[in-house]
Amino acid sequence: MHAALVRPAPETAAAHARTIHAAWLADPEMRTVLDGCAKYSSDWDDFYGGPLVSEYSVARDAKHLLDGALKVMALKSAVYELTGDELAAELPVPVPLDVTTHALCAQFTALSRVQARTGHLFVHSTVNEHTVETPWRAGDYTHQAYRQAFGPVDERYWIDAPEAERRRNILDAKYASIGITDRGMTSAVAYPPA
Predict the structure, then answer these.
(1) How far, CA to CA in Å, does 109 sit from each of 71, 80, 123, 157, 171?
(2) What percent of the chain is helix, strand and coil (3-state, nearest 5)?
(3) Could you list the pLDDT tens digit for every one of the 194 residues in the chain?
(4) 119, 106, 85, 110: which is closest to 13 by C-alpha?
(5) Which of 22, 52, 104, 179 pairs with 31 at a CA distance of 20 to 30 A?
(6) Distance between CA atoms of 180 and 138, rounded to whole angstroms?
């Protein structure tokens, strides 16, 4: 972790995250955002996020992933509001939930209105994710704050970093057998002309 990161005590972030989460859920447009993400879940498929979940089905898992992702976003926003530090707010998050935050953030226009009405920004930065470069680990700051704010994590989706990497290696082998490599970034699939 970046040496200069200073975060509030997990219980402080947790209390503020509950307030933010409640404000977002009380916004009249937030339910539409969440329902829309779940309904159009085919638009947020990926190679290495959801498929890390054992026997994953976006149709079955979308609601749970979106619920967890919104809570994680509330934690990140709480840290940002309490510190003013966007880098400190880029908390380590389990891969399936992180990918789902990207689906939420894609609802840019609606989320902009929710942010304006509630006064709470959605804080997410892929650049800062790579700067902090800390995978989620059971018992870490994110885990402690989440548990204090919202109760136990759903272990189906909260996959610890070593287990996530083990599962990614299994996926690497399966995808390579059909010509997809570099964690889904390269394809050797040649499509014949129509």
Answers:
(1) 20, 21, 15, 27, 34
(2) 65, 0, 35
(3) 445 789 999 999 999 999 999 999 999 999 989 988 887 766 666 788 889 999 998 888 999 999 999 999 999 999 999 999 999 999 999 999 999 998 888 889 999 999 999 999 999 877 667 667 789 999 999 999 999 999 999 999 999 999 999 999 999 999 999 998 888 788 898 899 98
(4) 85
(5) 52
(6) 30
